[in-house]
């Protein structure tokens, strides 16, 4: 997958397909809310596995019934790349199975 920095327009186009996600402090980010703290912890583990599989790792913060995901590409000087959006789409696919919203 290409790891070049996305332009502002490319970033906006991709964000439109990912409701709930935003660019915050230069990172592609979303916070999920879950029914229980344990469910939130399970989502963290699932996302961690996806990240290892794809060798792309976000900041992953377990809060009180929340999970915050924030990612950028260090290998591209901290820019947003296709890898960040691919990870976000994968997380979106599995989050509902944990009751995340
Ligand atoms: C060598 C290895 O591919 C790199 O260190 C990977 C690992 N995980 C990564 N994760 C993220 N978010 N950005 C990167 O640039 C990155 N690089």
Question: Describe it for me?
Answer:
This protein is α+β, with helices and mostly antiparallel strands and 101 residues long. It has one domain (8-98): Transcriptional coactivator/pterin dehydratase (Gyrase A, domain 2, 2-Layer Sandwich). Helix content is 40%, strand content 20%. It has 3 helices and 4 strands. It has helices at 8-16, 37-54, 82-94, and strands spanning 22-24, 27-33, 59-62, 66-71. Strands 1-2-4-3 form a 4-stranded antiparallel sheet, covered by helices on one side. β3 and β4 form a beta hairpin. α2 (37-54) packs across α3 (82-94). The radius of gyration is 13 Å and the shape is globular. The chain starts with 7 loop residues before the first helix and ends in a 7-residue tail after the last helix. The mean pLDDT is 97. The ligand C[C@H](O)[C@H](O)[C@H]1CNC2=NC(N)=NC(=O)C2=N1 is lined by residues 55-58, 71, 73-75.
Please sum up the structure shown.
Helices cover 40% and strands 20% of the residues. By secondary structure, it is of the alpha+beta class. A 4-stranded antiparallel sheet has the order 1-2-4-3, with helices on one face.
């Amino acid at each position: 997958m290409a790891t070049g920095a996305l332009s502002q327009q490319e970033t906006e186009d991709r964000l439109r397909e990912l409701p709930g996600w935003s660019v915050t402090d230069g990172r592609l980010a979303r916070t999920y809310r879950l029914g229980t703290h344990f469910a939130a912890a399970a989502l963290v583990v699932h996302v961690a596995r996806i990240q290892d599989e794809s060798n792309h790792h976000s900041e992953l913060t377990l809060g009180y019934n929340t999970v915050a995901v924030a990612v950028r590409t260090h290998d591209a000087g901290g820019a947003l790349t296709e890898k960040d959006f691919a990870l976000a789409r994968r997380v979106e696919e599995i989050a509902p199975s944990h009751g995340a919203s």
